[in-house]
Amino acid sequence: MSNCNSCPSNGSCSKDKSSCAVENNTMNNIKNVIGVMSGKGGVGKSTISALIAKNLSKKGYKVGVLDADITGPSIPRLLGIKNEKAKTSEQFIFPVETKDRIKVMSLNLLIENENEPVIWRGAMISNAVKQFWTDVLWEELDYLIIDMPPGTGDVPLTVMQSIPINGIVMISVPQDMVSMIVSKAVNMVRKMDIDIIGVVENMSYIQCPDCNKKIKIFDGEKNIEFLDKMNLNLLGELPMISSIGNISINGSITDKDTEKMFDSIVTNMINSMKEKESIMQ
Ligand SMILES: Nc1ncnc2c1ncn2[C@@H]1O[C@H](COP(=O)(O)OP(=O)(O)OP(=O)(O)O)[C@@H](O)[C@H]1O
Question: Record-annotated residues binding ATP (predicted)?
Fold first, then answer.
């Protein structure tokens, strides 16, 4: 199945073919693969992966989400899939499609009871992620969003080695931004020769519901210095707000201001990818 012609990185890849560990499924034609990553857990990586997919789909793109967070799979719930299960044949695994036509693959769509924990060793988890790339029939997609496992361990490494990721969106919270945790994740991605599209600063501030004053809980200035030093592009900031925290219940961001902010983050992401693509050509 290994085939450079069907690889989303074809044309922008500097790897020697013999050292490439990526197996592509020739039945799929995926134009862009975006990994959503964070240095540590709980910062909003899955929530933002789901929201990026929804926004891209609303913009008219064909979108898929691969939930590579095998031991903490929250993508189906965030995208409103409650009871559906993925079907399989001898050759393929078929993704479940949401109401807004987003194709989704997650371990929770393959197991009987979503409350059962996945008590697997690292190698099994890595194999499941690889299969989500090689065996799932994604067909034609403009964007495949990968909700990466948190941190810089074995599974994120396997994802980066076995899936041709075009770029990473790094999620951080302001307190973390200046810490070595984000630096570690950024350096790992760069060592793997993968582009960092930019950073989304989540839970950046809260807003007073009465006077609309923005309240920054953490000191933000050092974050700008940090981004500069690391040569990172800030795609945007998001408040800590119930309309983001409740998307699995409401199905989408319910207030216009936050929706606008999110829309501009996704537009920045698309433009940044296009810019880098045109530089490489
Ligand atoms: N901007 C936000 N405002 C309010 N709540 C948020 C926001 N972003 C994320 N949350 C909430 O924070 C919690 C953690 O989010 P999420 O599960 O997306 O993080 P994660 O980084 O993917 O975690 P994990 O490492 O467990 O996969 C969730 O309860 C989510 O609803």
Answer: 39-46
Residue 72, marked binder: no
Between the two ends of the chain, the Cα-to-Cα distance in Å is 27
Backbone angles phi, psi at 53, to 5 degrees: -60, -45
The rounded Å distance from CA 44 to ligand 1 centre is 3
Distance CA 252, CA 247 (A): 5
What is the SS3 assignment for 175?
helix
What ipTM was reported for this prediction? 0.98
Residue 42 assigned as binding residue:
yes
Tell me, yes or no, if the pTM score tops 0.90.
Answer: yes
Look at domain 24-280 and name its CATH class. alpha beta
How far apart, in whole angstroms, are the C-alpha atoms of residue 9 and residue 130?
A: 17
Residues whose CB is less than 8 angstroms from the CB of residue 71 and which lie 6 or more positions away in sequence, other chains included: 117, 118, 120, 125, 149
Report CA-CA distances (Å) from 7 to 3, 171, 174. 7, 26, 35
Atom of ligand 1 nearest to the CA of 49: 18
Q: Say if residues 198 and 265 touch (Cβ distance below 8 Å).
A: no
pLDDT along the chain (281 residues), means of 10: 71 72 86 94 94 97 94 89 90 94 94 74 82 95 94 86 94 80 91 94 90 81 83 94 91 90 97 84 64
Domain parsing of the chain, residue ranges: 24-280
